[in-house]
Amino acid sequence: MSTVINLYYLLHFWLTILQCSWIKNEELRARISYHVIEFKSLQLALALLEKYYNDSKQVYSTRFSEWYLQAVLTCSPEGYFSDDEKKIAETLLSNVSPFVESNSYEVSVLPRAVWERRGFDDITAVALSNDLKSVAVGINNFIHVISLPTLVQIMKYSTKSERIQCCTFSQDDSLILFGKLETAFSIARRKEVPFFPGNEETFLSCAFSTNGKRLVTSDGSNTIKLWDVAKQKLLSSLCAGFRVDGCSFSVTGLFIIANLKYDSDPGCVWNAITLQRSDKRKLSHGEREKPVVF
Prior knowledge:
Elements: H1 3-18, H2 26-52, H3 57-74, H4 83-94, E1 123-128, E2 134-139, E3 142-147, E4 153-158, E5 168-169, E6 175-177, E7 183-186, E8 191-194, E9 205-208, E10 214-218, E11 223-228, E12 233-239, E13 246-249, E14 255-260, E15 263-271
Antiparallel strand pairs: 1-2, 2-3, 3-4, 5-6, 6-7, 7-8, 9-10, 10-11, 11-12, 13-14, 14-15
Helix pairs in contact: 1-2, 2-3, 3-4
């Protein structure tokens, strides 16, 4: 059996393990993902070599093994390999290459155990959890949940939506809203669960109030809708008088903001309690929309 086929079955086994919910240790998940990325690159390279350079595939297979061992020494995040494991890699490399030099095993780099790079151009929505421990990414009709700061994919869910336009965590980080009120994605249950049952409302942007009791949604029209989360009912339709590209609450939760796509300033502002327009009142720095930084 060829090296490429062996790698294929090994990668399939590891990817199956990563999809299991019983892996609770993020460090273990990260280490497995690291090997998946490293060996996937090796598999693709070897496949090309076996196709075009059949006579030399054994030589190139050995060379790629050296590159992997070198990656263990120089490109692996701290804690992924023990000093003994790195010493073994260094010893093996010293037998085949006179150019190996390692002065320290303290390598601190961002794990390559993230995703395959393909598909990044298709990202349509990103949301940071409130506890700053995970991020939700919408790619076509899939929701990817990634742990922070390891950037390891925890789960992937295929929705029935044609294209996810937004991702938003509920205040307790248990749910992810992704463009419709009727259901939301439950992280714990790994499936869609009822949110506003029977409500067929769809939206392109949404945001929870600071206490999680209110929700604002925008469907790309000139209106923002304010909802009562507990009672699952519409409280008010707020007309901006122009096309709204997004909606949010101010940091303090005292104001509802209608965002313009190409303008950092709020296009329209309402008092979240009285629902009266407050456009002429300039929001202080402490009350502006909280920026999301990754």
